[in-house]
Amino acid sequence: MIGSASLAPYLGLAGMIAGAAFASGALVWIARFGDRARPDREAAMAASALTALWCVLGAALGPDAPATAMIATARNLAFIAVIFRLFSADGRDESLRPIRPVILALVLVELLQPLILAIEMRVDPARQFEAVIFEVSAVLAMLVAIGVLMLLHNLYAGAAAASRQVLRWSGIAFAGIFAYDLNLHTIAYLGGESPQVLVALRGLFAGAMIGLLAIGANARGASLQLRPSRAVTFQTLSLLVIASYLLVMVLVTRSLALIGGDVARTGQVAFLVLAIVSAVIWLPSQRVRSWIRVMAAKHLFQHRYDYRVEWLRFTRTIGRGSGGSASFHERAVKAIADISDSPAGLLLVPNEEAQLELTARWNWPTIEVPAIAGGYTLSGLLEQHHHILDLDEVRAGTDYHGELAEVPAWLREAEDAWALVPLIHFERLVGAIILARPRIERQLDWEDFDLLRVAGQQLASYLAEQAGQQALMDASRFDEFNRRMAFVMHDIKNLASQMSLLAANAEKHADNPAFRADMLVTLRKSSEKLAALLARLGRYGAGQVQELGLVDLAGLARTVAKRFEGVHPVALTRADPIEVVADRESLEQALIHLVQNALDASDAKTPVHLDVVRDGLAGRIDVVDSGHGMSPEFVRNSLFKPFVSSKRGGFGIGAFEAREMVRAMGGRLAVESREGVGSRFSITLPLPEAARLGGTAGDSPSAQQNEVA
Q1: What residue ranges are annotated as transmembrane (predicted)?
Q2: pLDDT at 382 over 60
Q3: What number does CATH give the domain 307-464?
Q4: 0.85 cut: is pTM over it?
Q5: Are 635 and 671 in contact (CB under 8 A)?
Q6: Which of 210, 229, 455, 562 has the largest CB neighbor count within 10 A?
Q7: Residue 519 clears pLDDT 60, i.e. is over it
Q8: Is the pLDDT assigned to residue 226 strictly greater than 50?
């Protein structure tokens, strides 16, 4: 097996050759591209040339040859000259007076090295005397290295901000060279011999550092900054953690070995097993990785976020194709949640009454969200102030804009809820994102607020654009539907006219009285049906009702339940005597639509329940089923959208037509649904007293059409 000692000469030869190439390249670079006005230009060129010569001699004669040692001394003196010239680069020539004695002392100490070399060549090769010479030479080299490092520290610490850009790369180069030499000579002094591997790599390292000196030789290179990405930093930290873990394992096992005996052996095995189990449990943990990221962002970077990476990830998440399982609204929640390392989130969108409703949830199936997740006052507060709510502050009682009274109770009680981010587009609230608490708990700060606010505005524009496109698609479908209905109405009108004319002619020209009578009855009935159909089609989609009056909700519910008798069980579980203002025919048609939908969603023997109750100044009839239920996204985006149906062969206008009929009567249709549990449709209509008040205020559509006495 070849040891490191046998490889050291070959490694040293390759390192010296590479170092000579680096130093020669640096010399050419400084001569051709270096700033000619720099005060250290000539000294830097001399240092590069002497470093190249030292590497060449080291490769040809060996690192310990007298000629190599003499050039090494000249190289160090050139380095000291460069540092001296750098002190004047900051315009501090007056402050050079206290520096000159230090420079002179370092030069004198460095000049002692040739003297030591001359003594070593003249005296007899006594082993004890050689050891003394070796130790003195190592001590002198350490003194020079320490002095140069102190000079570099004073140079950079006392430099102005503008001058640090000029000094940066030169300071890094000299600090690297003399820190390497200090480490090498310290190990040599303590061990009594030079470390062969460090000596072999000395030329390569010095050449690489001279390359950094060349980078800072012109203005363009001096402006370069080494800024490792966060990914590289996190990976480096992970490697350091693993290396520390292995180092601790080695130290502990070696310490246990000093005890000796079976106890030491048993302790070593037990410790190794414990260490391996701990590594298997903790190192793959998401919580540990999150903790490392938080600590690195907190202590190593000026800003917590890498804005370029965050923005690329945000746009990539939003722009992901529809081929995946996540919907657009779920991707929107994920895009905001990823910014703050939140594991889950909700999207709330205001309805037509400015109340917040749940539209989508991402990785948060357990939280219970009511049908009305937030009132219109909360929407108005978010829209007015654009304020991101820190829910921990809300729970603590901190109030900035009156949000304490508006945050709903369910959100206060959800301890996992961390922040509420409003989505504002052109001063209008498009939605709100509720973020779950990160795995590593921390407080929101100004950087979180700024980034979440900007990302929320961008996301709001996406949501508004998507809603606009959906509205255009609906309008296009309506236009196509209206054109088709126009043709149907035209054909039916012609047919009704022809049948009426046939009936009139048959009365005059039919010879057979019996045939004539039967034909007249048939034609009259057909004409009446076609005319009724024509009138109904003419009213479709106009949002009009025939006549408003008092309707007994309980009686209407009984009528509808009886209609489905024998088809499916429909139970009237509560029937308070309530009269509301409505059009009975339209209300019955809307209620039949809803009951039929409930029957379609329920099992054959599972009953559908009808509840008639009083709700303040309104009456309410609920259609409740225990069927398959609907997702919040389907309720929000598809349930009341015409031409969108979940039933095979369905036209998709039943729920839409029912809602439009109820609205035309001055009422409201609301829905609550949960997948696997069932649905509740609630029709709310005004009582006569409320209708009269609405008519007085002039904002009740039903009262405007027909005043209720």
Answers
A1: 12-31, 43-61, 67-87, 99-119, 131-152, 172-191, 197-219, 231-252, 264-283
A2: yes
A3: 3.30.450.40
A4: no
A5: yes
A6: 210
A7: yes
A8: no
